[in-house]
Amino acid sequence: MSNRIRTRYAPSPTGKMHVGNLRTALYEYLIAKHEGGDFVLRIEDTDQERYVEGALDIIYRTMKEAGLEHDEGPDKDGGFGPYVQSERQNSGLYLKYAKKLVEDGKAYYCFCDKERLDSLKQVVAGKEISIYDKHCLHLSKEEVEENLAKGIPYVIRQNNPTEGTTTFVDEIYGEITVNNEELDDMILIKSDGYPTYNFANVIDDHLMEITHVVRGNEYISSSPKYQRLYEAFGWEPPKYVHLPLITDENHKKLSKRCGHSSFEDLVEQGFLPEAIVNFIALLGWSPEGNEEIFSLEELVKMFDYHHVNKSPAVFDMVKLRWMNGEYIKKMDDERFYDMAMPYIKEVITKDNIDLKKILDLVKTRIEVFPDLKELVDFFEELPDYDIAMYTHKKMKTNSENSLEVLEELLPILEAQDDYSTDALHDTIMKYIADKGIKNGQALWPVRTAVSGKQMTPGGAFEIMEILGKDESIARIKTGIDKLKAAV
RNA sequence: GGCUCGUUGGUCAAGGGGUUAAGACGUCGCCCUCUCACGGCGAAAUCAGCGGUUCGAUUCCGCUACGAGCUGCCA
């Protein structure tokens, strides 16, 4: 075997891609690419019951969007195919290896039916558990042959010792030892002839020469059994890298219900793939310096799995939002316009307005695209605002002096045709200087009149430029009317 | 219940016998400013608890508590 590093991402086609799985895929990719190795995609579809139509497309699409390009996979033969377990199964591959274990006494046929298995179950602490009692291990070779000949459904189970201990080494958690009496005789081949994940994964990882098995923490307690499988075959076990769990804010496993458990959900909520990737890379791992914003290429350069954390990490949406905002701010304008346009069109339907200028205003003010809608809706239509908004202590404005300013400014603005930000700036600042007032005393009422909002992206000049002369004047007149009616 | 793993501010985390216990998000304050942001500056906030080892434990060991995972013919 060569020293070339090979990792694999081995999802089941059962639906959307969970962020925990995506992080696993990411780390597998990073481990391989950091060393110039191979990243393999293998589809584990041995459970036909859970197969979901279209799930395969989701896997391909998600990996593509996340930038995790695989070197080998169902669509890219690298000489270790097939890369789909159901196809591998067709050649009788798994059964062949299972039979080899049977011959060596490391596995055995089991003909126990559901009723007998159920009778083995017991309820402990409110949970149903069952440990197989090795009943069929004691069948004679003749009895087994006879049952097989009769066509009685069977499974093949691993034959684990009941004494002694089994130890395996995890790159993150170190040496882990368990008593063999804890090892259940897990099923290797199901009665439908398909292998279980537990078995197929060992066979395929070995056959595909996977050097680093990276997977979630939940497999750690099964690993001693895999270890025994490798030993039974006389194969060298891979390096194990078990990753800490990602939890929700309540420290519970991320569930489908929380709305941000899958890559798809996140994208739908307006998050950028590269921000998601960047964020999850930092869940359970941290680089050496103080930087936190990294491209995939940079992650490849810096990633070192030896620094992966042992403890679970909370998936913090607030920080993800911040990070997404950072990506938006750095995004080049064209891509930003493209991505933001569908959202702004939801709230602004008039066509005599420069949407790109509005988007420029909003770029540093949103963390996620849908945020922009409520920021810019006033461009579409002046809200029916309360004139209390004209009163601002710090600006030293109130209804009376706001009305005065607007009435004085109205003819000046009506006389002006150049509504560029610069021109507006010059004329209004001149008015302010001549009158000898603070900037805010004029600018606050004007901004309020043209926007009808307390807070706006951009100031009075920018808003008026975008609105244009007619609409600006109309809104100022509306402001004057509102104020007159109240004074 | 059993087994396994984990526990540094609210969150992500660095550090690993002697440190003022990094940094980031968030929070709060100040500056900038026509508002909101951006940007800049600053502050509050952490070693789960108890024992042990040691001149000295956040760091090593043990126990407890809490959390999580596994205990499927799911992966």
Helices and strands in order, then pairings?
Layout: E1 6-9, H1 19-34, E2 38-41, H2 55-66, H3 85-90, H4 93-103, E3 107-110, H5 114-120, E4 122-124, E5 127-129, H6 141-150, E6 155-158, E7 165-170, E8 174-179, E9 187-189, H7 197-207, E10 212-216, H8 223-233, E11 239-243, E12 246-247, H9 263-268, H10 273-281, H11 296-302, E13 313-314, H12 317-330, H13 333-347, H14 355-362, H15 372-380, H16 399-414, H17 421-435, H18 439-451, H19 460-486
Parallel strand pairs: 1-2, 10-11, 12-13
Antiparallel strand pairs: 3-6, 4-5, 6-9, 7-8
The protein binds one RNA strand of 75 nucleotides through β4, β5, β8, α7 and β13.
Q: Largest sheet, described in full?
A: 3 strands, antiparallel
Runs in which pLDDT lies below 50 for 5 or more consecutive residues are: none
Q: What distance lies between the first and last C-alpha atoms, to the nearest angstrom? A: 89 Å
The helix/strand class is mainly alpha
Tell me the number of helical segments per DSSP (H or I, 4 or more residues long).
19
Read across the widest sheet, the strand sequence of neighbours is 3-6-9
- CA radius of gyration is 33 Å
What's the total number of strands? 13
Query: What shape does the CA trace take?
Result: elongated
The helicity comes to: 40-55%
Mean pLDDT: 94
Q: Strand percentage, roughly? A: 5-15%
